[in-house]
Amino acid sequence: MKKEPISTENAPSPSGGYSQAIRAGDFLFLSGQGPFRPDGASIKGSFAEKTRQVFENIRQVVQAAGFALDDAVRINVYLESMSDFDTMDEIYRELIPRPFPTRTTIECGLGGIGIEVDVVLWRSESQ
Fold first, then answer.
1. What does the alpha-carbon distance between residue 42 and residue 40 come to, in Å, rounded to a whole number?
2. pLDDT tens across 78-89, in order?
3. In sequence order, which ranges of 1-127 are alpha helices (DSSP H)?
4. For residues 48 and 13, what is the distance between their CA atoms, to the nearest angstrom?
5. For the whole model, what pTM was predicted?
6. Taking the chain, what is the end-to-end CA distance rounded to the nearest angstrom?
7. What would the pLDDT profile of 89-112 be if each residue is shown by its tens digit?
8. What is the CA radius of gyration of the chain?
9. Which residues neighbour 18 within 8 Å (Cβ) at sequence distance 6 or greater?
10. Which of 8, 11, 26, 52 has the fewest CB atoms inside 10 Å of its own CB, making it the most exposed?
11. How many CB atoms lie within 10 A of CB 90?
């Protein structure tokens, strides 16, 4: 199975030695997306605005790979503060199709960005 890097100008470029996503067979693995515009500028608005930008970045990378958010099987959410959980969860429920993928939400130090999300997707080649 060959690994294929996925890249789009419609989401922020990686800031280090990693790809926006890697397709490996029927799987797509997205690197963590933060609250940044495609030009790399950080979102200075509310936590809700930051969260919406994160999921828009994810949607753009997923779309560039020929997948859809319906294909998500695993989502990891990293929050700077669990006090933002309810806001994140409300937006998540609005944007992520059912049945919901598995998810883990972790509170961790994010250097002031508030939220980061990574995703694993699966789509059978026969679909």
1. 6
2. 999 999 999 999
3. 47-64, 85-95
4. 22
5. 0.94
6. 18
7. 999 999 999 999 999 999 999 888
8. 14
9. 31
10. 26
11. 12
Boundaries of every domain in the chain: 3-122
- Dist. CA 34–CA 115, nearest whole Å: 6
DSSP state, residue 19: -
3 state DSSP class of 31: strand
Query: 26 — phi, psi (to 5°)?
Result: -85, 0
* Residue 117: closest CA among 12, 106, 93, 40: 106
CA distances from 25 to 35, 66, 125 (A): 29, 13, 8
Q: What would the two tokens of residue 22 be? A: 């890697």
